[in-house]
Amino acid sequence: MKFADWIMIAAILCGPVLAVQAQKWIETAREKRNRRLNVFKRLMATRGAVLSPGHVEALNMIDLEFAGRGRRNEQVRRRWREYLDHLGSLTQDPEEQARNLPVWTERSGNLLADLLHDMGMAVGYDFDRVQIRRGIYIPMGHANFEMETQLLRRLLIQLLVGERSLPLEVRSLPSVRQKLESTTPPVDPAEALERYVQKLESTPPVDPADALERYVQKLESTTPPETGKDKKGK
User: Which alpha helices (H) appear in 46-139, and where do they start and end?
Assistant: First the structure.
């Protein structure tokens, strides 16, 4: 057999095996890209709500899903390290935090835009940084709800730990008359008269002779006894 025949036989035998292996490589690459694309989409969808659990979870998936050796993957990881370092740079002192918060927030937005821009390039999307920063729809109601929720949580914590007290203001006190009127039910005159007549009818009649006898007995029991001096005078 000639060398060309051996090549033909080897191609016939190895062709199906190589085709299956090539299909597996393609599916693996597609699955990795889909996972990276999912992280990118979640970050883009929640870039206006950076405190949401979905946004934070997607940020923590960057090191795992963009762990390849490609230049774009390395660029994404570098952007994420810069953004992560900035997120932890805000001081915990309340006065200094309030003073530096506007500048810190502005730089956070710029770093997040750089991160999303490089991630988009890595998964096949070409969004410019201005579009990433400004092309966000955030209803005012959602922004107010998030701000009020944070304020209520902070005030409640201060109240529970004793750093704040509830203000009380007494506008007016009810008078005695108002209190009696609120506690004593009104009396119907007709109903009161009917109860009085029923009470009289239920009382048994009194015999005059019996009443006179009881009155005389009462007088005799209360008359003081005669003393010795009174007897001698008599």
Answer: 53-60, 62-65, 71-87, 94-123, 129-134
Residue environment code for 174-185, b if the CB has 16+ CB neighbours within 10 A, otherwise e? eeeeeeeeeeee
Residue pLDDT, tens place only, 160-188: 888 888 777 777 666 655 665 666 566 67
CB 34 within 8 A of CB 27: no
Nearest to 51 by CA among 138, 158, 163: 138
The SS3 of residue 51 is coil
- 89 with 107: CB under 8 angstroms? no
Domain ranges of the chain: 19-135
Distance from C-alpha of 32 to C-alpha of 20, rounded to nearest angstrom: 19
Distance CA 71, CA 67 (A): 11
Instruction: Please tell me the pTM assigned to this model.
Output: 0.58
Distance CA 231, CA 234 (A): 5
